[in-house]
Amino acid sequence: MPPLLLFLSLLSLLLPHASSLDYCVADLSLPPTPSGFPCKSPSKLTSDDFYFTGLGVAGNTSNIIKAAVTPAFSPQFPAVNGLGLSLARLDVLPGGVIPLHTHPAGNEALVMIQGTLCAGFVDTANNVFLQTLKKGDVMVFPQGLLHFQINSGGIPALAFVTFSSPTPGLQITSIALFGSNFPSKLIEGTTFLSDAEVKRLKGILGGSG
Question: In terms of domains, do 97 and 112 share one?
Fold first, then answer.
């Protein structure tokens, strides 16, 4: 076989597999691995696999925190699997709060769309960084650091956030302490809160122990 034809034949064998290196749309029918979900076969993908409409509708804010987070992580938007990014929508009513929490696997950037949020984070040297965010403002929250957002205005606040991971993770401090079965005596000993206060908070957030 002439060298050119041999080269073209080999190239034709490689081309069907080339697109699989461009992306890894999550196959949610398979369990996730430490590096993300297994990839859906490229031959089964359509443009709909790279399209998500879930952030166009406000989340349900009729809850104790008067706020909602609508995620577009790998489980909701499989196309971000393996891309090193994801998104979410924040809806916060006046007086509402996204409580102190961390994202252990990703940095966060927040873009204000409507309303006002008081936002901030605490670094590992216990320095506190606070800012009042209005429409068009952006704030970043480094990976793993405690941070929060509170609606400090008179109208519902809307913000979109992006993360440097398709699965940034989430741990809300108050839920971890008072919404779990963490023994009350250990919480009292590690936080210096009274037994009555720990029981009150567990009663509000549904914890036991």
Answer: yes
Per residue in 37-90, pLDDT tens?
A: 999 999 999 999 999 999 999 999 999 999 999 999 999 999 999 999 999 999
Q: Do residue 125 and residue 36 come from a single domain?
A: yes
- The model's pLDDT over 19-51, given as tens digits with 9 standing for 90+, comes to 457 899 999 999 988 888 999 999 999 999 999
Q: Is 17 annotated as a binding residue?
A: no
Domain span at residue 183? 171-209
Q: Is 108 annotated for ligand binding?
A: yes
Report in angstroms the alpha-carbon separations of 152 from 26, 96, 147, 149, 156. 38, 8, 16, 9, 10
101 is annotated as contributing to ligand binding: yes
